[in-house]
Sequence to fold (207 residues):
Amino acid sequence: MAQLFHVHPENPQRRLLAQAADCLRRGGIIVYPTDSCYALGCHIGDQDAMQRMRAVRRLDDKHHFTLLCRDLSEIATYAKVENSAYRLLKALTPGPYTFILRASREVPRRLQNPKRKTIGIRVPAHKIAQELLSELGEPFLTTSLVLPGAELAMTDPEEIRDALNHAVDLVIDGGACGVEETSVVDLSEEVPELVRRGKGDVTMFEE
Fold:
C-alpha cells in the first residue's frame, strides 16, 4: 500500500524528503511533483524498479527514461556537453525541458539509446524535486505520470494514490501540478531539434 506524504511546495519538510530518498535507495517507486506534471521516479541502479515503472505505464523496452539532475555540473557528469549545447542548457535550466544528449561513461548502457548512445536529461524548477535530489545525492530515473490510454498526466495526489496504490511505494503530495509534459529537445547533434512540444517556450527551435 502506497504511503502519501503531504509536503509543502515552498518549504519542503526535510524529514519527509529524507524518507522519500531512502525509499528510492531501497528500490521503491515514488510519485513526485515537478514544474511540468507529476512524475514517477526510481533509483538509477535498480533494474527491478525500472521494470516496475515500465509496467505502471505499460512501456516497452524501446522507451528510454530520463535522468533527473540537480544542475549543469551534474549534467556534465552524465552527458557530453558541447559549447553550443552548454549555452542552451544554461539558459533553459532549471525548467520544463528534457534534453537528449550523448551519454558519458557514467550512464549504464541499459539506459542509453542502443544506436545513438544518448540519454534524456532534465533539471526541474520545482522546490520539492530539487530538495529530493539534494537529499538523495545523485540523479534518479524518471518518466511523466501519464497512464495507459490517457492523453494527460494525473494531477490529484489522492487520486494517484488510489489508482496506483499497489504499483508504487510513495506518493508525494506537493499540491497542484500541470497536466503537460516537458518539451523535448535533441542536443546530441550540431543543430538542436525539437522532438516534442510540451511545456516551456520552444519558439527558438522553430525558426
In short: The CA atoms of residues 30 and 170 lie 5 Å apart. Residues 3-192 form a domain with the DHBP synthase fold (CATH 3.90.870.10).
